[in-house]
Fold this protein.
Amino acid sequence: MKEKAVIGVPTAAPTEHKEQENPHVAVTVLFMLLGLVVPQGAIYGALAPFGISLAAAVSGTGAVLVYIATLVGYLLPGGAALPLRYMAAVAVTGAVRWTFGVLPRITGKRGFAPLLAFASTLVSGLLTNGTGTWLTVLLTVAESLAAGGFAYFFRAAFGFMTQSGERRAMTMSEQTGVILLGAAALMALMPLEWYYLSPGRVAAAVVVMLMARGGREQSGAVAGIILGAAATLCMPERLYIGIALAFGGLLSGVFSRYGRFAIAGVFLIADVLICLTATTDMAAAASIYETAAACVAFVVLPRGIDKLLRRYLVYGQHIPAVEGLRHSMTMRLDTASRAMAQVSEQVNAVSQKLANYGAPDLGTMYRCAGDGVCRSCGLKVYCWEESFAQVMDAFNALTPLLREKGCVEKEELSGFLRQSCRHQPEIVASINAGYRAYLVREDAWRRLSEIRTVITDQFSGMADMLSELCGRFSDTQRVDMETAGRVVALCEDFGMPVEEAVCLLDRQERLTVEILAEDVGVCLDGGRWFRELQTCCGRTFDSPTVVRLGNTVKVVVTERPVFAADIGVAQRTEDGERLSGDVCRYYTDGGQATLIISDGMGSGGRAAVDSALAAGIAEKLLQAGLSPDMVLRIVNTALLAKSGDESLTTLDILQTDLFSGSMRSFKAGAAASLLRSGGRVSRVEGASMPVGILRDAGFAENSDTLVDGDVFVMVSDGVLTDGSAWLEEYLRDATADTAAALAAEILQAAVARQKDAAHTDDMTVAVIKLCCRKETEKRHGEG
């Protein structure tokens, strides 16, 4: 089949390039502002190494601007005691960065930034302070280690902020880097007070509560510990403030699932307990006022911040070792598949052996008939020992008569029986009775043989099914545990206790979200929950599939495909019949549209039963994820086992990927289909047998790629009684806007062509039209 590029889908390359540039510019501006503030943060009285850490962490086109801003920050009053030393270290850091800029393999290493910050701080400190006392050297080394450690995490934060492509959740290292970056800036603001009140400490408390809100216990505790340590380093005389921030961060994370007021309440309680335990002076009261102000500010912040945090933060939860479970399940399915295959082989071998020993035999029937009559006859030895061959020849001569009439008469005896037997009436009666019993046994044995064959096929089919499921489990599909954590947090924010939440990424990185939660009446389709779910996952989803089972609701959400499938079906029953032998099923699930047409042999009730059985089984198994080949095998076995009478039906399956437009057609004895693409019409057909005739059934498979506006038409054989040429011409000129209208027009044209025919068949027309989703939404909006 021909290959076509997917057209009609607007490219996003220029927009993506622009979006990638804008974040880098914004991050450069942010780091320039930090360069003015961070050098003001001091530890151990007058040591300010954090500007050097910031300079060592940044890179790229805007790094020079950050270096300049950092130099200016060290010149501002209130910072380091010896600003020239730190300015020299920043200049050296920038020069080394610029020199090694042509060697990304070196500058891109994780250890480059911390090593550069450590060396610059250490060398500048030793040159400025000398090596007079061991305490001075130890203090310089400690300051250098702090500069290197902060540079490591600053680099992680800078890398996250300037990442290209789709934004993802932060790793723990990146979270720590962002918090440390904020802590370094707040250290410059914490000592600033107005009537014992510090805006820096208020901001630190707000940051801790925000991190607890977005990342639960993990992020809340990390933020509390880091900002608490920062407060202690810049204000060692107020150790209780650092303890209150750390303890409050942990408690806020624990109570974060209950909303903002709960977070603010427990944070305030923790601060009051710590401050009043440590001291009762005015500073403690001021700290409580600061915390109260921070709680009020946190509560009134816009809810959009929650969405932003939920997108980038992830909290630890009790998620099983999914990969280990998947490997374990794969091995078990593979073992079960091999075992079922062996069972099938053993059953087949035993059945063949039993067929040789236990099958009904006419020779045995003749001997039994003769034994019953001749037991008391004086000529038994003469007949059955001396003349055994002549006796059996006479019996075997009766076989054609028995096969033809089902019985024999005395006059029809021949050979030895006619010439020498003294009990001819009794022999005839015994033969007729024995033959009737033989027919019953023969029919039962034939049915038993058929059942054994079906059972063998079932075992073999189950083995293949398990093998296919094993292959699906072992596919390169991974679980996005970070996104699952954010989904759980979102559901709990809406009061939905979650039992299970799984986020799966397939080989094309398409996300599927499956949620099992308590049904609390939340609107799950198109409401605020659904909009926030898309923001939380950073994806655009199709309408969710919602299944309610008692007090539990299962929600399955998949990414919105590129295409929308417009499907229309039109059917007509044969004149004089109440039931149609044609059955059509279709559904859209997980970005794939599936159409099924089954045409039973003949028309009326018998054909309706066969086609309904085939289409129903095929639909359920395809929805369960089995391949069309496996579905065909199971449907074929079901029709063979349904009854002793012949049951056959055609099966026509179309599967269309709504992301890529790829199409696969599977036909088992089905009529030809038609594809209209770019104004050209082509037939899609293949030689194959209907289902239910032979044990080894197979599909005729075709594949192609559909694009925006392509139309695929499937029909039953009743539509093409006089060939497909007229339908090709009709489809080429058809102008119907919708698939339903086109299906109705084709059916009407087919009926008109056969109005004078002596006999008509059931007719079914199924049409799928592929439309670019953006164009479809635009038309709906205009309408």
